[in-house]
């Protein structure tokens, strides 16, 4: 099997990069962190690309773009200690990543006719938007005036990404839905911890929890999207559309 497509090889490299990042952060080894943290998204992006390139449709390109802008965000945030403006660059990059993911998920939704499962999706939407609103509202007193708009914009973007993932219910394969939706929830959890840890008060083991939930989120989203595009039924449907 092509090692570039292997889940075992790439999953092992991904886990090693995560462990290396956590160790570097705990020990203050900045050089090691600068190597290991970008490696997470580089490995994941490569694995996703080589498994999905024969599909090469808008959905996979949007997911690939989300992974790319997440990598840009990771790199920018690593240098925020040098210049606070790098935090805003990272925030903007992740905002674009969330938009890419959301548009990709919504493409799944519009491809399927009918309203099956819509009530569940609407319930998930209400829950996610309520959480996003109350979390942002609770965080506002801790923010500098210059950060209010970008942080609120990002909170809206990631909430909408979660909503879009929720609307895939009954519009994709169950395994793909639950993987992507769990990834979206972990992404929201990771960013909530990051915001609370940075702006409000330190979270116990905050750095570890932020990285573990973030790494889990990105992996589940990428893997869940691959399940969607590589499932035999989906591949047959795409082939039928081309012929």
Describe the 3D structure.
The protein is mostly helical. It has one domain. Helices cover 81% and strands 0% of the residues. The protein has nine helices and no strands. Helix 1 runs antiparallel to helix 2 (30-52). The longest helix is centred in the last third of the chain and has 27 residues, at 174-200. It is globular, with a radius of gyration of 18 Å. The two termini are 29 Å apart. The mean pLDDT is 90.
Number of domains: 1
Number of helices: 9
Average pLDDT works out at: 90
Q: Low-confidence spans: pLDDT under 50, at least 5 residues?
A: none
Structural shape: globular
- First-last Cα distance: 29 Å
| Percentage of β-strand residues | under 5%
Largest beta-sheet details? none
Structural class: mainly alpha
Number of strands: 0
SSE pattern, N- to C-terminal? HHHHHHHHH
Whole-number radius of gyration?
Answer: 18 Å
SSE order and pairing:
Layout: H1 7-27, H2 30-52, H3 58-78, H4 85-110, H5 118-139, H6 145-166, H7 174-200, H8 206-230, H9 232-242
Gist of the model:
The protein has about 240 residues and is mostly helical.
Q: Which structural traits does this protein have?
A:
single chain, mainly alpha, 9 helices, about 80% helix
